[in-house]
Fold this protein.
Amino acid sequence: MSSLQARAKQHGDLRAWLEPQLPAMLRSHITGVIERAGDLVIFTDSASWSARVRYALADLDGELRGERPSIARIVVRVLPKGMGD
């Protein structure tokens, strides 16, 4: 498997792990999830949804880090749909 394919699979696995832990209304606004240098970076389609996801994640912070000890920090950023494709 190429490096690019491996990273794509890892990103898909992270998203599949994260999304069930979020309320359904937030899931459709997630445009990507990556782990980079100890940061779990979650991308949303707009700034308003970014704030909502950040708020929801505050309640899940301990649980997420407990399941993934490699995560030192959770970051939410904006990446509109279609921009990361």
